[in-house]
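Example (one chain per record):
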Amino acid sequence: MSKFKRSLVFVQIFCFLFLLNSSLAAKVEVEQLLKVGWEAFNDGFYDIALSQFTKVRQNNPRYEKIDYVQYLIAECYFNQKKYDLAQKEYQYLVNLYPTSRYLDKALGRIGRIEFINEEYLLAIYAYQKLLDEAPGSEDRHAAQYWIGEAYFNLNEYDKAVRAYQTLIDKYPTSKYIDFAYYSQGWSLFKLGDYAKAEEKFATVLAKYPASRIAPSARYQLAESLFKQKNMNRPPGYSMRLRHSRPRAITLTPRSTGGVRRCLGSGNIWRPAPSGSGF
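Predicted structure:
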């Protein structure tokens, strides 16, 4: 081997080792930044976490889990209730990493932010996109429920009834199933179909007597019977229910999933599930 060729081989080996060392150093740096950021995130120090995750994104754009880093950046803003910034970061993930395992989470959050902002049509779009593009997501049942809620808030009660029924049919073990029956009953009540509304409220009481929605279902059942002028029912449906109006129920703040509504006769709030599912 000539002297020139030996020198060339040496240079190639040196470059390989240099690049390998640089790659290892970069990986160690990323892992350290993520560790500090994750610990800060879990402790609620979102500004610190945000600075660490942002450094990873800026300095290592080809990091193998950069979509996860992007999701965490958005989560920092969401938990700070900086919803406009959070939505931009979630949308960035959706646009740039359409095959990300966090796509469904990002779409769910976008839908939630639109719901918080009372942009119900945009919320429906985000939730429907989740259903269409994330067939294996564990959050599909939640998206389906909040589609129903969005239609309810748009006063499109017939569409709300269908959306709740889809949840009932497809996701019978969903944690929202009791609220789906109740909200479906409310939608039917609003449509003036008091007999079917009665069936839904009765279903809540029969299947989910321990649900926190049960007191409201009991009252609305009596209201449905009253609207039908049907007072001759078994003791469980007696008129005393109509006078046992539930106290106002403390709801979770809108930003964490509670939805306040003043519905029906009298100034009572229709409860919503604790948490949005996203």
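Caption: Confidence is low (pLDDT under 50) at residues 4-11, 13-22, 237-269.
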